[in-house]
Design brief:
This protein is of the alpha/beta class. It contains twelve helices and 15 strands.
């Protein structure tokens, strides 16, 4: 696959072709739940991955330049096409804030279709369910600005795709990957897998998409975001132990250096876009080997790739 041509396509694709890519990606995610996919195991909304390496990408928020930079710096396409056991894992928040959200989502979906077992798409709070809206949510307006009234159908198809995105990924004994934070009462991987099905009767999905770590508290407290909770180190320790991993890798919060570490190394936050409205000096991504012992948040922070 030629990345430059794919980027050109993201800008020039017509509404009908974009709609087909959204539908086909949704169908692929739906099939994975039934038939599986080579490269990882699927359990409803949870992905189990235990081999090879991951290029982990945090919030992109319509910043196509940052996404393309990560693909080039990581040499993802060249390495995968050369036979390396490597996967892209997105932590969610593909859309909103940045002006090129349609182009970002088109590119991510195109990568998923080209390399089905090598791209894992997690859900962010900006791809959340209708009863947990994000503000500002300007993605639908970007679609109508680019495609006119056809943008309405593209938004509907995008929402259907969001509903099929995974809520978490886990590398047994090593890492938990999700967008926001651990649910404060998490007791099993089954609750991660069934979070969407249990919503809204139980708050697992809300907390996965919206929670933030806070070093200054014990337990949980309401989040100033208006959804989710702030959770303390004791919550991280208990939740990670319950699902049998060492470190939480999550997105959701801007970081001046592209990463920050919380909860004495149990949690690392990853932010992978730059520019307004965030003002971070660097964006970052991680490359994580699943063949090596788990690294703490501090170790991952030192090895983060910033740009």
């Amino acid at each position: 696959m030629d990345l430059s041509k794919l980027v050109e396509e993201a800008f020039s694709v017509d509404a009908n072709s974009f709609a087909e890519v959204l539908r086909t990606t949704a169908e692929a995610l739906s099939r994975e739940r039934v038939d599986g996919v080579e490269g990882y195991r699927v359990d409803e909304g949870l992905v189990w991955v235990d081999k090879g390496s991951l290029v982990v990408i945090g919030d992109i928020h319509g910043d196509l330049d940052s996404l393309v930079t990560i693909l080039r710096l990581s040499s993802f396409l060249e390495r995968v096409e050369g036979g390396e056991d490597l996967r892209l894992l997105f932590l969610g928040d593909y859309v909103d804030r940045g002006e090129l959200s349609p182009e970002v989502l088109y590119l991510v979906c195109s990568l998923k279709l080209a390399y089905p077992g090598r791209v894992i798409m997690l859900r962010g709070n900006h791809e959340g369910p209708p009863d947990l809206p994000s503000f500002p949510h300007d993605y639908p307006y970007q679609l109508t600005r680019k495609y006119g009234q056809e943008g309405r159908e593209l938004y509907k198809l995008s929402v259907e795709l969001f509903e099929l995105m995974y809520v978490a990924a886990i590398s047994p004994g090593k890492y938990l990957f999700l967008h926001g934070g651990v649910p404060h009462n998490l007791s099993s991987t089954d609750e991660l897998a069934k979070a969407r099905k249990l919503h809204p009767q139980k708050r697992f999905l809300e907390e996965i998409l919206w929670n933030d770590p806070d070093d200054s508290i014990s337990g949980v407290t309401p989040s100033p975001r208006g959804a989710g909770l702030l959770f303390g180190p004791d919550v991280s320790e208990r939740a990670l132990s319950a699902v049998g991993v060492k470190t939480l890798i999550r997105g959701h919060e801007p970081c001046l250096r592209g990463t920050y570490v919380a909860h004495k190394g149990l949690v690392i936050t990853l932010f992978s876009r730059k520019g307004p409205p965030y003002g971070n000096q660097y964006a970052a991504f991680l490359e994580v080997s699943l063949e090596k012992p788990a690294r703490s948040g501090y170790e991952l922070d030192r090895k983060a790739k910033r740009f």
